[in-house]
Amino acid sequence: MQATLAALMTALALFFAPIVQAFAAPSHAIAMHGQPALPADFTHLPYANPDAPKGGKISYAWPGTFDSVNPFIVQGSAARGTIDTVFGDLVFDRLMVQSADEPFTMYPLLAKSIETDDARSFAEFTLDERAKFSDGQPVTADDVIFSFELLRDKGYPRYAVSADKVAKVEKVGAQGVRFTFKAPDRELPLILARLHVLPKHLIDPATFDKSTLKPMVGSGPYTMAEIRPGDSITFKRNPDYWAKDLPSKRGFDNYDEIKLTYYRDENAMFEAFRKGLVDVFLEENSGRWKNEYDFPAATRGDVLKETFETRLPSGMYGIVMNTRRPIFADRALRAGLTELFDFEWVNRNLLSAAYRRTTSFFDNSELSSHGIPASEAERALLAPFPDAVTPDIMEHGWTPPASDGSGRDRKFLRVGFDTLTAAGYTLKDGRLVAPDGHPVSFEIMLKGKEGEQLAVSWQQTLAKLGIELVIRSVDASQFQQRQINYDYDAFLFNYAGSLSPGVEQVGRWGSETRDKPGTFNFAGVANPAVDAMISAMLQAVTREDFVTAVRAYDRVLLSGAYVIPLYFRPERWVAHWKRIDHPGVTPIQGPQLPTWWFAQ
Q: Given Cys at both, which of 92, 107, 263, 309 links 196, Cβ 3.0 to 4.6 Å?
């Protein structure tokens, strides 16, 4: 009898399993792969100090200028640094907050829970009843739907990339919003969880996509208190911020006032930091880090230099070549140019030997294809695209030629020259000439003086082979507008690394974004193999399948030679006045400035 009952119970469990899966219970968090690290009753994120003192002021710096405070739209030069930066989301809360100590996991903020199924064919968010905008009005399901549709229709094109995957969005009860997908999508619930929610009662959709200097209202910890066009924005902490005691926000947003000042370039920012006008300086210049912190405040200990280790992939800091330009439509030329950057000389003479050459879009992590042959699983993914990966990259990843660092290494120059001559390029009267008879000449666009020494070094190397490189310096506003409209031959850019690359890769390299202004597809890539590898990444369920897809993707991008890989360092350099303090724990993604506090 007991055996019969046990068999019946097993049969019923198997019968109802699909139904149980289809109606999975709401969860406090969601991870891209595996389970969230923190339980539902977590008290704070592990890299935040829940007892951090509140009060004081901090001044940050950001390069460039602005003529609009709307960071969600294409028009104008938006005030950068207010969302998606190291300073955090100051004015606009998201549905959920991403942990900086996991590859990709979202925890409660405006939404107190998320529900999805095993296939991830939908995502349902339940809002926290306490959530409200800074004007006191509650955050509602209507606001969520409004924001989703507004950003899809009027915001940067990258918003539409994810929104176009949603078949239907609807209210569920009093506090719920359900997104039903056109097809199951592993990452889409987490992407939607990152949605900034805007107040429907204060925004006119007809004018939302127009530049504005009128303070915007959100549900975040700060409000826009003072706007000085082109110069600065001052944010004041909202004493009634609804989420200040939420576990995901304990230890964050510790200053009463944040001033974000815009400077023409990095040198001007550093001078302001030396004078005490800026409290924190994120150092990117190795020579300055090594040699220029001997000013009085630093020598007497009022300014501190700290190095923070990260466990992030390198990302790709490189010279982006715009394949929309006829000169860069030829992959052979792009490949030859990738072999003509003399890293060893640059590292020794310009970078204080503090950097490593980048050999992968995911260097410094298990996602990198460098130094390892493609696995059978990778080869299976790449099989429909037999010409997408070069034989050498298939066998061991990309290995750049190395020079002796003298700046006069003829063997180093020969590698790039041989690649070009094999593709039909020739030297005539001291100029490198393309197969169509035109001399090889192009322009690199710089933002002010940023990267000037590096560009001059590359210019000198290319000149040895008869290649003309013109260096064009423009101001920050013009640089941004030319980026948006893809009006350049080449420029320096840093694609940030991630342990969980996902749908943002469509905006960087996907065919569908090639001809849309305002995306990050600066190289103008339209490659079916790239699209297929992104799809494989997004569909991967296990970490093993995900790593396989990313490595294959890495090989395709490297084989396409869209970017000349430059260099990276696995740590971050931060200088700050000692009146600013921080937690003793550094998460995977490096120091998190929103968790720092005023100590005096």
A: 92
Euclidean distance between CA atoms 257 and 245, whole angstroms? 19
Neighbour-count burial of 546, counting CB atoms closer than 10 A to its CB (0-12 exposed, 13-18 middle, 19+ buried): buried
Residue 24 is predicted with a pLDDT of 66
| Separation of alpha carbons 89 and 219, rounded Å | 10
Residues 6+ apart with CB under 8 A from 557: 361, 509, 530, 563
The CA distance from 119 to 106, in Å, is: 18
CA nearest to 107, candidates 249, 219, 245, 240:
249
Q: What is the 3-state secondary structure (H, E, C) of 510-533?
A: CHHHCCCCCCCCCCCCCCHHHHHH
Partnered with residue 62 across adjacent β-strands are: 262
The amino acid occupying position 72 is: F
> Tell me: the pLDDT tens digits for 590-599?
999 999 999 9
Confidence of residue 34 (pLDDT cuts 50, 70, 90): confident
Beta bridge partners of 209: none
Report whether pLDDT(584) > 80: yes
How many C-beta atoms surround the C-beta of residue 491 within 10 A?
Answer: 22
The model scores a pTM over 0.70: yes
Do the beta carbons of residue 195 and residue 144 sit within 8 Å?
yes
3-state secondary structure of 405: coil
Other Cβ atoms closer than 10 A to 258: 24
pLDDT tens digits along 452-503: 999 999 999 999 999 999 999 999 889 999 999 999 999 999 999 888 898 8
d(CA 115, CA 122): 8
pLDDT band at 21 (very low <50, low <70, confident <90, very high): very low
For tokens 């501190």, the residue is 304
Q: What is the rounded distance in angstroms from the CA atom of residue 351 to the CA atom of residue 287?
A: 6
Q: Is the pLDDT of residue 70 over 80?
A: yes
pLDDT digits (tens, 9 = 90+) for 363-379: 999 999 999 999 999 99
Residues 6 or more apart whose CB falls under 8 angstroms from that of 246 comprise 108, 109, 128
Give φ, ψ of 223 to 5 degrees. Answer: -120, 155
Distance CA(96)–CA(107), nearest Å, equals: 5
Residue 149 backbone dihedrals phi, psi, to 5 degrees: -70, -35
Residue written as token pair 């920050």: 476
| pLDDT above 90 for 311 | no
3-class secondary-structure state, position 457: helix
The pLDDT tens digits of the residues spanning 84-121 come to 778 999 999 999 999 999 989 999 999 999 999 999 99
Distance, in Å, from the CA atom of 267 to the CA atom of 276, rounded to the nearest integer, reads 14
- Contact, 470 vs 490, CB < 8 A? no
Which residue's entry shows tokens 């006829």?
326
Q: Which two tokens stand for residue 567?
A: 């260099």
Q: Give 256's contacts (C-beta < 8 A, 6+ positions apart).
A: 54, 55, 56, 57, 236, 237
pLDDT classification of 69: cutoffs 50, 70, 90 = very high
Cα distance between residue 541 and residue 120, in whole Å: 11
CA 520 → CA 189, 315, 348, 384, 448, distances in Å? 22, 14, 31, 27, 20
Q: Which is nearest to 566 in space by CA: 292, 346, 416, 403?
A: 346
